[in-house]
Design a protein that fits this description.
By secondary structure, the chain is an alpha+beta fold. It has helices spanning about 1-15, 20-25, 35-45, 95-105, 135-140, 145-150, 180-200, 205-215; strands at about 65-70, 75-85, 110-115, 120. It has a four-stranded antiparallel beta sheet. Helix 7 (about 180-200) runs antiparallel to helix 8 (about 205-215). The longest helix has 23 residues, at about 180-200.
Length: about 220
């Protein structure tokens, strides 16, 4: 009876630490890491169980993010989650190794374990205690803020801002007066002067002067 009980307890322990135990066998990330906007959004989704952030949506069944691996350039990832109803019945397996392998296949570069559940295991020199995200902070939507404070994310501010420059065809062209235009302008000026003199001398009435001036200018 005691032997049977011992086997049952051992079985439960193996199921409960299925992910955590395997995670400890692989080297976690170490050193500086800057993750992309896409990866940051995915981490917010991962830590919140799909309930918070850009990718958030109503979940048919609640789940827990178990572990996530990220590439050295911070742009690729691979992760595992577990439905809440099965979290104590996870079959032992090399899940971290699979996540790292999947990430490496997608990125073509080295990948390392970034987080195990709500604990960030990638050591970039930041406070180890702060790298364990609190559930209340995750639910409050502070994940991205915490990632910035820890130095893993810069809010995507490193991308170059677009500079709006005027199009070449938007500039106005100024036509230079030609010799012909100058000649026409001089003729009109002379005729207007003569009309004005005729009007002042009384040869033309005001009505006649206005009509002649309008005709000349048009």
């Amino acid at each position: 009876m005691k032997k049977l009980l011992a086997i049952m307890v051992l079985g439960l322990l193996i199921c409960n630490v299925g992910f955590a135990d395997v995670a400890g066998r692989y080297k976690a990330g170490k050193g500086p890491l800057k993750i992309s906007k896409e990866v940051a959004d995915l981490l917010e989704y991962y830590f919140s169980g799909g309930k918070i952030g850009r990718y958030a949506k109503k979940q048919k069944e609640s789940w827990i993010g178990e572990l996530i691996a990220i590439s050295a350039d911070g742009k690729h990832y691979s992760w595992f989650n577990t439905p809440t109803s099965y979290q104590n019945n996870v079959a032992p397996g090399h899940y971290t190794g699979q996540a790292i392998k999947g990430c490496k296949k997608k990125s073509g570069q080295e990948c390392f374990l970034f987080a195990s559940r709500n604990r960030i295991v990638w050591d970039n020199g930041s406070d180890k205690k702060k790298r364990r995200l609190k559930r209340k902070d995750i639910r409050a939507g502070k994940t991205l803020q915490i990632l910035q404070e820890l130095g893993f994310y810069d809010g995507d501010t490193t991308q170059k801002k677009k500079i709006n420059r005027p199009l070449k065809n938007q500039s106005k062209k100024i036509e230079k007066p030609t010799q012909k235009n100058k000649l026409i302008s001089n003729v009109i000026t002379e005729q207007l002067t003569k009309l004005n003199e005729l009007y002042k001398s009384g040869v033309l009435t005001k009505e006649e002067f206005t009509k002649a001036k309008t005709k000349l200018l048009n």
